[in-house]
Amino acid sequence: MNIDPVDFQGLLQAACDAYCTSYFNKYNMYPSSGRDCTHKSYKVIARLCVDHDINITDYIPTCFYLVEKERRYITPTDFAKMEFIDRYKDFKKRTKPTLSEHEFEMQRKSLYKLLLQNKLLYTTEEEALINIGTPFSSWFRVIYPVPFNEELYKYYGQLAWKELQADKGLRIYLRKTRKEQVAELERRIAIFGDNMEET
pLDDT above 90 covers what percent of the chain? Predict the structure, then answer.
């Protein structure tokens, strides 16, 4: 399947972001390998996900959920294999619901830890979430705060919308837990195409 170079570069960045965020959420530290989207394995992962019609931002967190290696041995190369594509598909068939709730809770707990461990650096949730160096997905930065936060929307709104557009399972889950925030994001950018189907 052919894919636009710009879109492919976006997939590489999404893979890198998902890998680093998932690694941090699982081990409370950043990985030593795979912190740049130029890592060669991200190209393989992106191609496999495109060829098998898999959402890359769901694939990588799921792989972390399934991985059995110790932390120091995990690299993006582990997930750039058909073995993990097959394990991902099998897991999805067996567990039908996505890992959306797990991912939301992991990021919520990471935010709590970050604020607890860096009280002098971050005095509010907004300060932690607006910092691009903290390990949170754009959708979480925009959708988690109550009430809807203008500054976070300004910096992360467009990317948050794109991430949610690519993950129907996550949208369904967030409509239950953050209904007003999802509706506000749709009001400002665009309604997700399957809104009527989901509600």
Answer: 41
Q: CA-to-CA distance for 54 and 47, rounded, in angstroms?
A: 10
Same domain, 124 and 194: yes
Contacts for 142 with CB less than 8 Å, ≥ 6 apart: 149, 152, 153, 156, 157, 160, 181, 185
- What tokens does 7 get? 């879109």
> With the CA atoms of 94, 99, 105 and 108 taken in that order, what torsion angle do they form, in degrees rounded to the nearest 10?
170
pLDDT band at 142 (very low <50, low <70, confident <90, very high): very high
Burial of 67 (0-12, 13-18, 19+ CB in 10 A): middle
**Domain of 112, in residue numbers:** 100-198
Would you tell me how many other CB atoms lie within 10 Å of the CB of residue 81?
A: 15
| φ, ψ (nearest 5 deg) of residue 5 | -55, -35
Do 105 and 68 lie in a common domain? no
pLDDT band at 57 (very low <50, low <70, confident <90, very high): confident
